[in-house]
Amino acid sequence: MSATTTPTTFSPSLQLTGPQLTVRSSSSSNLTFTYRHRPSFPILRALPNNLSSVDSGLSSELDAVSNFSEIVPDTVIFDDFERFPPTAATVSSSLLLGILSLPDTIFKSAVDTALADNECARIERPDIRMSCFFNKALVNVGTDLAKLVPGRVSTEVDSRLAYDTHGIVRKLYNDFDIPPERLLFKIPSTWQGIEAASVLESEGIQTHLTCVYSFAQAAAAAQAGASVIQIFVGRIRDWARNHAGDPEIEAALKRGEDPGLALATKAYNYIHKYGHKSKLMAAAVRNKQDLFSLVGVDYIIAPLKVLQSLKESTTSPDEKYGFVRRLSPESAAAFEFSKEELVKWDQKSLASAMGPAAVELLAAGIDGYANQANRVEDLFGKIWPPPNV
């Protein structure tokens, strides 16, 4: 099947073989998706300790790793967590910035309508007024996207609400006829965010907890029933290269492990050993070796340059890289956790267990999202009120 839309030129070009995704951008603001079924599955052969390796004869390394993990291209377009290639979309402050940077997109009317909202316009304080416009724009663009894609629409919750459970839980889509199963809310993994995820999941709203940098956060998110838990592997490694004093990171280094990969592995094993419904997503994957070390994790967000390299390479398992499934339900069952790690997590235990890396990186992530939201509101302030308002 194929679908063609004309939203913006913000998405880079991406072409994959096997399961194929084509995302082309041009000066004419055309964005094209091409869907193709995976031609065949690689042949598997058993290895000791419940590991599997992909037999030779594959068309690309991408085919090999895709057999074990869902590969998510790192683009503005959000991938449905059930299938690859993408059939759903994300609404975020970065998407709004892309829309505002272009003179004409199919989402322009959604933004214009948000800026013409009478409820927001009546607010006297300029900062609160712009925040209202920001949330209305997220809703309007998300509503339009829901009409264009068959899958879920992921909405970035305003990160300035990261420490406000009630503010996060507030329904952004309560005025629109969008089924709950079409929605996925992306929330920073503060304790308040984790609490909000628990409430939303109990009401049938799927959540995506992001900015997870410690095992305590991952375990608490799994206990809350988050649909997706996202760990930024490369950011943890970056912190470890320039800092010291984090017990969790130092323990991984003492074992000779990369701390980011070690956290993703441990979180995956916890989720799958104890039957949590959550799926683990590894992000900030910097190179192919990172990706190969994570083969078997539920989802991997891969940079376009890594995907292109995987697509173009036909290296067999007997050569430089062996496609061994590193993470599996079997490996999870064999993983041992300490008594302290198997507690029922609450706000106090989470705070005490988060080391300096998790605290600093979580705060930096929230600040980054907030800065993007502020940039959107600054742009809104320059164009509001629109004509005829």
Q: Could you characterize what this model shows?
A:
There is one protein chain. By secondary structure, the chain is an alpha/beta fold. The chain contains 16 helices and 14 strands. It has helices at residues 61-66, 93-100, 108-115, 118-121, 126-148, 165-169, 191-202, 215-224, 233-242, 247-254, 259-273, 288-293, 304-312, 329-334, 347-353, 356-383, and strands at residues 2-5, 14-15, 20-23, 31-36, 44-47, 51-54, 70-73, 89-91, 153-156, 183-188, 206-212, 228-232, 279-283, 299-302. The strands form 3 sheets. The chain has an 8-stranded parallel beta sheet with strand order 7-14-13-12-11-10-9-8. Helix 3 (108-115) packs antiparallel against helix 5 (126-148), helix 5 packs across helix 16 (356-383) and helix 9 crosses helix 11. It is globular. It starts with a strand and ends in a 6-residue tail after the last helix.
